[in-house]
Amino acid sequence: MKNLILFFVLIVSFFSCAKMSSKNNSKEFYINGIIEEIRDSTKVYLKVQKSNKILPLDTAYTINNVFKFNGKIDKPEVVGIYIDSLKGEIGLFIQNDSVFIEVNKNNLSDSKIYGSELNNEYLKFVKQSNKILSKTNYLFPLFQKARTENDVDKLKNINNQIEQIHKDNIAFTLSYARNNPESYISAFALKSLLKSEYVTKDTIASIYQNFTHEVKKGDFAIEVLLFLEEK
């Protein structure tokens, strides 16, 4: 109950900060988190993905089960939050707005994130993609069994099913990127297909061309453009 009250106090406090920032015409991002039963001064790292590399951006320390980051970015970024002594990371899209995180210590990737429409959009896209790919889960035990039995026909059939599921996910990803040209998530989605043997450069180019000017300024869209310009 104490942590629940603290969490809502945190939300109210930082919405106030965000409003003050808006009045000062200074757009910044605020990332605020709460972790149950963690010692004070535990390090929390904010890292950013740049050209497939994870680079440090900032470091915070827990005080009374709370950690805070804030700053300013020129365009939306994919960031990861890492916490000393805890495995995994919290991944999210941020822009200059307020984000609130209720940390799941047992599984950081299952932490609850509030306040960011962009991150909500990202999670919705990932959830749908994972729902498609999860159809392969029941096939892997069958694949292992067929391989142990050296059943060539079964192996071929299972491989065909797995391949079709991946094609379905590619079709979903292309459709999302094509139908949401104003979304940074579309650039993220399109970038994930650059190495796919099932997607041609012409297809990628036609979708990229329809992205808005703002989306094209983002890192993912820039990576797509560099790919298209390769000989």
From TrEMBL:
Signal peptide range: 1-18
PROSITE patterns per the UniProt record, alphabetical: PROKAR_LIPOPROTEIN
Domain of life, per lineage: Bacteria
The UniProt record lists the keyword Calcium: no
Lineage: Bacteria, Pseudomonadati, Bacteroidota, Flavobacteriia, Flavobacteriales
Span of domain DUF4369: 30-122
Alphabetical keyword list: Signal
Name of protein: DUF4369 domain-containing protein
Organism of provenance: Aureibaculum marinum
Pfam families hit by this protein: DUF4369 (PF14289)
